[in-house]
Amino acid sequence: MQVKNAPLWEQEVPMEQLEFFTVQSPCIGVCQVNNRGYCKGCLRSREERFNWLQMTPHQQREVIRLCHDRRRRILAAARKQQLEQEAAARPRQDELPFL
């Protein structure tokens, strides 16, 4: 399910890939770099993207694991930020007026 206006890392963008390789590339066709140098689509670093075809299947699976970890950290940080914003918008108990 694709959510409109969701950040790219939360969108599911199916992309057909040919079955030539043991480990499919995590590329989803969104080739833009975020402020930390990772692709916004697959979350691979520049080196990981450029060296993908030279990597062994074991190395490729390790890169995919790292990408999943990066995605989890990004989503956790986004959830934490959202909770902090919601908490900041709520009045604190000691600030409520007595009735």
TrEMBL record:
Domain of life: Bacteria
InterPro entries per the UniProt record, alphabetical: DUF1289 (IPR010710)
Source species of the chain: Zobellella aerophila
Organism placement in taxonomy: Bacteria, Pseudomonadati, Pseudomonadota, Gammaproteobacteria, Aeromonadales
Protein name, entry field: DUF1289 domain-containing protein
PANTHER family tied to this protein: DUF1289 DOMAIN-CONTAINING PROTEIN (PTHR35175), OXIDOREDUCTASE (PTHR35175:SF1)
